[in-house]
Amino acid sequence: MAITLKNVMISNGKRVDIRTENGAIAEIGSISEKGIDCSGLVALAGFVDPHTHLRQPGFESSETVMSGTRTAAKGGYVAVTAMANTNPVADTAAIVEEVMALGEASRYAFVQPIGAVTKGLGGSQLSDLAGMHNSNAQVRVFSDDGLCVFDDDLMKEALEKVLPFDGVIAQHAQDPTKTVGSQMNDGALSVELGLTGWPTVAEESIIKRDAELALETGSRLHVCHVTTGGGVEIIRWAKKQGARITAEVTPHHLLLNQELVRGYDPVYKVNPPLRTEGDAAALLEGLLDGTIDMLGTDHAPHSAEKKDCEWENAAFGMIGLESAASVLHQVLVASGAGDWELFEKIISTNAAKMLGLQNYGAIKVGERANMTLFNPDEHLQGNEPSVSKSSNSPYFPLTLKGRVQHTMRDGYFTMFDQVLEEFND
Amino acid sequence: MKHLLSIRDLSQLEATSLLASANEMSAVNRRALKTLPTLRGKTVVNLFYENSTRTRISFEISAKRLGADVINVSSEVSSASKGESLRDTAQTLEALGADAIVLRHPMSGAAHAMATRNWISSSVINAGDGRHEHPTQALLDALTISRVFGSGFDFKGIKVLIVGDLYHSRVARSNFLLLNLLGAKVIATGPRQLVPQGFDQMGVEIYDSFDEALSEQPDVVMMLRVQKERMQADLAFSTSDYQSDWSLNEERLRQLKSECAIMHPGPMNRGLEISNSAADDPRSRVLDQVQNGLAVRMAVLHHLLGGQS
After folding, report:
1. Pick from B116, B132, B196: CB nearest A263
2. In 3-state terms, what secondary structure has residue A419?
3. Residues of B with CB below 8 A from A313's CB?
4. Nearest Cβ partner of A194 from B85, B113, B131?
5. Architecture label for domain B135-289
6. Architecture of domain B7-133+290-305 in CATH?
7. Closest to A12 (Cα-Cα) out of A393, A397, A362, A400
């Protein structure tokens, strides 16, 4: 099958035609044959999410690999990850292979399983990291996300264990001893609202320790969802020291801040919590100077029962796959802070590189045709019904600038003109 | 106005109008026949997930004086102990005819959840949510202060000192906001581990010691109850230390201005945060506070249910 995209802008600002054939990009340039008019759209390397909760196995009422990958395609993603905090926890070769197989059954997106660092996310005993790496799932990135690998020695051992195969430990940086019962960002607002605070130092102290361990071991560290200005500072320092460290920011920490907690609507309850406007500005600064490498949605679906209750009883997390590109566009490109080349790196190239995904992250002749066509002139209404099985989106009162028009995976559309394709196989 | 959830939501005009209406209700309370049946046919439910005899009774009498039917539901008898969600409880009470739910709940924000999540269309009155707010308490305190000083509801020039366990106190938080809204100067003090950073953002000046704060010659001293049941083990303090540093004892009583008002939201721990001599001093307004509580709660119920906007 061949498809020609006509008159589309690519990230360097050039207007081109792109022809795909047999799932790969065959030609970029001025192509005489007719095709799909893409004027007004920006063709970007298909989006890659380093941080997705697909909830399967165990929490299928919130999301499944199928519903999650459909949601991903709706948001322009061609590859997502499957975080390990499922039930059972993805801590053995058998389970990551099961998740891999679920992913292969979906045509909507590639699914890269993430393995748990510790058995059962218990934080006391390492999982069989090499075994998961050598499995069919070829796990390269490990994370206890949702929980922190807190023990110093265990974290060091994990970094050492993944060094031989150039693996990565992706850390959810949260000192559990400083965040007992935490509900929101710590500060004057948490004091006023009578909610237990989640202090920034609980994040920063772990990032600092991990950066030092990364320097000492020479291993690769990925910092999940950095949220604080101080955290950005530490990562900046660690990169200067030569640490092999990457970092991600979520769309919600870029766009939203803690003031939203005032109405006690648990749709804004997330871990790590929404911080201050100043923190959000520091995160954007970090993206602009390359301290933060990529966007991670931390798409965290929860069924309505877990959100439609008192704040303290509600679950942490928000969905984000469908809105991530619009949020990043609004904060980065529409604001004039950055350009499309940076946008593409943040939402695709750098995540593909960190995850070790060969076929993603660039629009280049000879590469697989994984592309997202973004429409900067249209808007995404935050209250549009979600494709996800859950509806805990924090953007429901907002109109976001720009939206994904088409998503192409391996040369076929998974979404065309904002409508998901249905596959009958 | 549909709900009363937080002083933060009130404009100065809304606050003074509630207080003015409470003043009128006080006149009703002084009559031989203490009723003003504007809420006849309405049903008010007191839904209390924490024990509070005085607040519950105050709301009950207030609602009855306005002619409403009152149902009391406490956590011991509600389905909460069987695991029913707040949403289901609220919807059940509304289905049974509740026009207003007066909610006391151990979690901050519970009243917001009940009022603003499209669960029900009844009015919700926050009668204390976790460590957050207790708005009718602040209103009754303001009414008390206004009567002591004959100041109307412009508190400019009045200095209020709030003393004690600020961390756990929803009374303190609502008072910080309302007193500032009315123009008072608000200062506060308490044991270091019970005074978190950040109260300055609510318009409060924090003093390190009770005695230093007293040297500011406050017009009102409001003693907070030591909430022993909320004290976590790691915040344990010795009773004798608390008495010497934070109690309104006889020695400190002597330092108060002759026209200073002594207030306490009750119930008092006599001998702990307040001495007998202070509680029973002619300047003590504790029982006035209780009486003004009726007037304020009548005014609030009337505002929310009586068709007045």
Report:
1. B116
2. strand
3. 107
4. B131
5. 3-Layer(aba) Sandwich (3.40)
6. 3-Layer(aba) Sandwich (3.40)
7. A362
